[in-house]
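Researcher: I'm preparing a figure for a lab meeting and need a structural model of a single chain. I don't have an experimental structure, so a prediction will have to do for now. The sequence is pasted below. Please return the structure as tokens so I can convert it later.
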Amino acid sequence: MEAARAALAWLSERTRVSPTDWALGIEARVRALLSEAGLREGEDADRCHQESIRRLGRTRLRAELARAHLLYGEWLRREHRRAEAREQLRTAHEMLDTMGMEAFAGRARRELTSAGEPVRNASGEPAGPHAVPAGMALTAQEALVARLARDGLSNPEIGSRLFISSRTVQYHLRKVFTKLGISSRSQLYRVLPGDPASASLR
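Model: Understood. Here is the structure written out token by token.
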């Protein structure tokens, strides 16, 4: 968990300079995870998860908000608070499935099943490993990078938002182009569906 501690130190320094809801929401998420692991005494994981959701809910980063609901739901299920867990996991699954983030949607689906609730995807069909067409089978990270690139963000801008390097962004985009059968960023609009949340990230 040293990486998480280092991330928290970096985020805390950043939020002191620029206390945006995005930065504070991610910081609260990391504090929640460290608290869960018993590495941050006196911290309330429940309160931190709720703060993360509240702050990210004020931003336009729907993917990060969906992940916040997912993490909170997973924690609630581990705490045997199943009804509350299902509410958070249901929200996470609906958001992630709609955004095409199949890896994370699958994770939410498995958690919901474990919490005692059957899950269907956004089209109303039973959700399963083939919910996304083979040609569109991007990983969660690839899907997020692709949507940010489609919406006009540069590689450095994408890297800054996702805490990865520009080189890693380019690596993901190469894989996206191969999987989607395209050769440039300008073609992303043709193969990726638009949505209001990602359009507002410009």
